[in-house]
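Bug #77: duplicate submission created two jobs. Keeping one. Sequence:
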Amino acid sequence: MTTNFFKSVSVLAIALMFGFSANAQDKKVKTNKLSVTVGEFYSLNLSNDNATILLDSEAKFANGSESTPITMTIFSSKKYAVSAKVSSAQFSGTAANTSVDTDNIDLIVEKTSGNEEATISTRTNNSLKHATAEQIVSSTVATKADVYSLVYAIPADNTSAFLDQYGKTITTEITYTLLPL
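Kept job's structure:
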């Protein structure tokens, strides 16, 4: 019986050895190279195409008035800067012999969310500029979503410029430009 046992164990050992050897030869190893091609993308989105400031009460003329906030969202695959420029020095829609300067309106910018390197630019004052675009925000890194709140405001000191415009709606356009750096 011992002889049969050793024969069985020997046959089993030889079978296992060939089995492992056969399995090792059957394995094939392949590699696959994966590449990611990254393009350049930039977008600047505003939550609303229109904004309104109401000067429709004594309190608003005395204290100033603001528009509702507009959300500006930036996507940039590179660092960036955003500038703002008002279309002209005066509002349009005013009657003959009257004019209201667009620099009576302030642009107030606040960061809502985004990367730490996204910053609001230091400006000499908040009034809208028309001669040259003025940088309002920038980032030293790329971003998927830097979000800012934009509010147009007429400070109390500037409301008197609008006093003789009773019953009129005067307009201007502000252009925002995203510049990848």
